[in-house]
Amino acid sequence: MTLAQRAMEQLEVWPDLSSGPASCGAGRALRSVHSEIVHFHSDHDVDLHLTAGAIRRFHDDLQESTAIGLIPGSDWVTVHLDCDTDVDLLMSLVSAALKAHQNRPSPAGRTAGDECNFRRVTVLPRG
Known about the structure:
Number of helices: 3
Distance between the termini: 23 Å
Structural class: alpha+beta
Order of helices and strands: HEEEEHEEH
Strand order of the largest sheet: 1-2-3-4-6-5
Largest sheet: 6 strands, antiparallel
Oligomer: single chain
Radius of gyration: 13 Å
Strand content: 15-25%
Helix content: 25-40%
């Protein structure tokens, strides 16, 4: 079982999340009643809809992590799952994302920040 599969199985049992196809057309998504939260794109790469406010709040820590890819202006972060610690990080960030989406006003329509980072970021494997 890959790390992404293990993370997906753990998150699918969370009561606030339901699974379905990712709106970007690549992989599976987990969503809350408010928004898509997680896109599983491959065995190692996961996009997480953290919100702009949460990204600002955690920016310095996110930027220091070798598992995180950030794109300026995106409300999503890419998490590269390379070890068990990365899965633990994803679980913590999903929890933060769910809280951030509960406090986020519902947008009238999709904006560029609502699009995941699929094909927009490359996370290099740890050397």
